[in-house]
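Quick one: structure for this chain?
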Amino acid sequence: MSSQRKEESGTVIFITRLTSRVLGLASRFLLPVSCVLYLASCSDPYFKDDYEDNSPTSGKLKVYYDEGLQLQVKNQAFTFMAHYSRAHLELISSTEDNAVQALYNDSCKIIMISRMLRETEKKAFASKDLTPRFSEVAKSGIALITNFNTPVNILNRQQIIDLLTKPFVCKDTLSNETRLNVLFDKNNSSVMHYLQDSVLKGQKFSSNCSVLGSTLESINYVAKNKNTIAFIDFAWLSDVDDSIFKANQRSVKFIAIGNVNSKRYEYPSQSAFKLGTYMFTRSVYIYRRSGEFTLGKGFETFVAGPNGQTSFLKQGLLPAKQQERRINVQMGTVTTE
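Got it. Here's what it folds into:
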């Protein structure tokens, strides 16, 4: 019996030691895994401090945009985030040149501006083996606004050039002379670049041209002072339901523009952009340097898709893609008795 008890005792000791070793090995393996699982469960899976794209509908993304497009960009971002609660967009107002520079420096993955990249900018990106993807998303234009009491309602192209390059005097219907001043929305803005490059062809602005700090400041100045014409992005006053438009509709008016010797003068509008009859029409683009399965791609697709295009339409700009509408007409005969 004593030998049998010793044998049983040895077996128990062996099993106990084996179990202890197995548990020890298991704990060494499972502890790190459990820690990882615990950390993953306790932390935000979308990395609140990480600005890298995570998916087309989640993560964080910086968006630089031209200041003239502020109302549209904010509306697009708000609608996008309302659809996708795990996506967070940080919007940064800028000049178009600074926005392109931010994209080049990888300070952001996506920008929205009112022009295409210049050749020099394309070459700079190419030097980094980069070719930013882009989508045309809307059409807007440069608007000329003035105080309701300014005796000017129409201007032709040559008059606009004269207005920008030298002291300009206009006459009203009673031949009274009025000297007009010019106001720009913001220094180095896309509006200034467009006028200098596309209208003046490199000529310098005259001394009667002034610059304020933002488009909103320009609108407010014109609303309170007559005989000043401000050049702004139409997108700031395109939405007739917006509070800015409503606050200024009785004090600020648009100036219709046209070519020399033309009998047709146009105001900025969706129909004029569509027909190409407004002289200062320009397109709005989204540029992206992120991959296909990223938040940048998701936002670009949203803005260029049905929801984003409808938002542009409601805010008074011309969507780049018109939604198809089908009308079924049933023909029949009408009998009378």
